Amino acid sequence: xxxxxxxxxxxxKPHFVEESLYEVHLKxxxxxxxxxxxxxxWALVWFTQLVFYGLCWLPWNGRQAVLFDLVERKFxxxxxxxWPQDVIFLSVLLIISAYSLFLFTxxxxxxxxxxxCPQTVYTEIFTWIEQKIEGERNARIKLxxxxxxxxxxxxxxxxxxxxxxxxxxxxxxFVGYFSPIKTxxxxxWNFSLGPWETFWMFFYGSLTYLFAGHxxxxxxxxxxxxxxxxxxxxxxxxxxxxxxxERGEPRGPRRKGPEPRSIGKGDCVDCYIxxxxxxxxxxxxxxxxxxxxxxxxxxxxxxxxxxxxxxPKGLIRYSTEHAIEARWGWKExxxxxxxxxxxxxxxxxxxxxxxxxxxxxxxxxxxxxxIRDRGTLAREVEGGLIENVYRLHVINVSETPHRYAISVTGxxxxxxxxxxxxxxxxxxxxxxxxxxxxxPESGKKGSNQIFFDxxxxxxxxxxxxxxxxxxxx
Amino acid sequence: xxxxxxxxxxxxxxxxxxxxxxxxGVFLWLQGTATHTAGQTTGHVWDETLEEYSNPLPNWWxxxxxxxxxxSLFYLxxxxxxxxxxxxxxxxxxxxxxxxxxxxxxxxxxIFKKFQSQDxxxxxxxxxxxxxxxxxxxxYCAQCHGSDAKGGKGYPNLTDGDWLFGGxxxxxxxxxxxxxxxxxxxxxxxxxxxxxxIKDLAAYVRSLSGLAADSIRAQRGKELFVPSCGAxxxxxxxxxxxxxxxxxDNVWLYGSSEAEIINGIxxxxxxxxxxxxxxxxxxxxxLLTAYVYGLGGGVKDAxxxxxxxxxxxxxxxxxxxxxxxxx
Lengths: 473, 327
What we know:
The structure holds two protein chains of two kinds.
Chain A: H1 2-12, E1 17-20, E2 22-23, H2 36-55, E3 59-60, E4 63-64, E5 66-69, E6 74-77, E7 80-82, H3 87-108, H4 111-116, H5 118-134, H6 137-145, H7 150-175, H8 181-189, H9 195-215, H10 217-223, H11 225-229, E8 240-243, H12 245-248, H13 273-276, H14 297-308, E9 316-319, H15 321-326, H16 330-335, H17 340-361, E10 366-372, E11 379-381, E12 385-396, E13 402-409, E14 415-417, E15 421-424, E16 428-438, E17 446-456, E18 463-472
Antiparallel strand pairs in A: 3-4, 5-6, 6-7, 8-9, 10-12, 11-12, 12-16, 13-15, 13-17, 14-16, 17-18
Chain B: H1 8-30, E1 35-38, E2 41-46, E3 50-53, E4 57-58, H2 59-78, H3 93-116, H4 120-124, H5 127-140, H6 142-145, H7 169-178, E5 180-184, H8 195-208, H9 215-233, H10 258-267, E6 269-273, H11 277-297
Antiparallel strand pairs in B: 2-3, 5-6
Helix pairs in contact in B: 1-2, 3-11, 5-11, 7-11, 8-9, 8-10
């Protein structure tokens, strides 16, 4: 990919020009586009945003269905309650995300960037608002150049107002995942938001406004690390958005009708629409570039032009380096999807997903930590019995209260002193101190393995068999 | 900076910091008109083919550098950073710690204050106070006395009504605040005790609390007991408050086996409870006293004391006013 990019750069900048070290940012005004990939992009905008804006309002079991309660250190996701001890699931989720990114990128290029990344999705929404208020690409360029007037002021205020509202709502929704959203909504109206709620709402809101309204492709080009490292997942069989140079060149305008080759031209009519629709403002005909986020807007745009010209579609299309070189069709491209890199990514991803699902499905609803008193190793009590002290930290991870029976096994003549029945409310924890006594002749000198059994009265499957050690002096 | 004797270093460090920040700003400003040749490489090559192209820097990126410089100057003006200059806000880590402590005292002080004005029996009967007391106990006391306050070898049981230094509210508080020292000299008052005599004494001491012992040895030990041990443990071995434990009950601080008793007599015992008063402060000490008092062994002060015995104290009938002690 690196060689492709450098070749294209050299091809298109044959004259070295001395220019300012600082690039003045020219706003990219992408032209609206429709077509199959635009539909896909919008479908993903709808899907991701319905989930993001909607999920936090869903009730479940008398609480918010998805709530990350940082103060109580509990994450609620529908029927599941995650405690800090469950951080492994978060790690596994991140590993899954990473491997998915590797796999999708190896197969289909920057699919994440083009369709699902929040930066793309919000830029799409903000551009849509801009287009509805200020008009199409040409109108926007004209408005930018026009001097300030009452009309311009009104249109601009309307746009920024709409952006700000959406951005604030985004900030509010974001905070609503950490602080119950219904209470949060009430606090907005009686001005009783906490300082951190206010800060994060405005922080997240401002960044949304700044990134989706103003920074846009600058984020992808200059700030995003993923944009850069996805290049290493590319290989000559990776599907990327490609301009078919051999078919397109020599480009040039022409009348509709004659066969292009008969007038010494390629299929490209040089209409510049592919450049106009590009959200990062590049010309895909220069080859694969690091700025290309793989959104496929140019494919939709070019296909429409090809259709009007009665040429076959796909002058710009998803293709691979090898396919372009060897003039492969779809069948060969698909055959080359299965290659060691893809197989290894898929195998690892599959294994981790299975482990994750299995882990969630069998997640224990009771946890017991046995903490042996370290200060007092062992002590002698009435009758010469030897006693060890333990603190049992019993965590009821489920959302129903439970009564548990505590017992101990492992040494002859063993007896448990202290609470044997423990009630723990829903999603709460209790700590009890218990003593274990054994006759002095029981077990060996030093550490002996024993087991605490904590069992629910209501459901015998809810049980923990926890190892501990008993010290005989 | 207090490590330096000469004021020169202070100026030196402050100078370097300021010159660097301002120098960066001047450099950035001078670079405003810099040019580069687009499309050329910088001449750097890595890993055989990886080249770096000369690409322009986004203009907004340059503004971020200026913002950084403004921020540094603001920071250096407000916070310590320029030599010994403390900054306009006079911030220091100890100052921040002090501030947080004051804030915490303001928040939690009233809770402790509320209980501080009540007497120990009343606090010991209060559920909230007991829970607070337990948390404090688990933090500060459980390392030695155990999570259940029942002690261990060398660390007294605080729940059994048997007290080495007294179990009234005042005595418990004094133990916590000032700590306690205990020392039993090796071989008591008779440094010339022989090994056999010590065995005899051990047998006698075991027999005092009804443990199995060689009766002939115990008989011989009895004669040795008063001159060697009686001064502290009393002629009958019932002990003296705050001086020597009662040897006739079933409570054994170091264990009741013959070997342990012989060990104790031969080498003596030294033990200490550290003083916590200064570290914990009055509020926490008061709650801890009430918690320990309420564990079951609390002893009412005098007949005149209010009958506010805590619930837990009831089963273990508070012992007579002069409490029994512990070995």
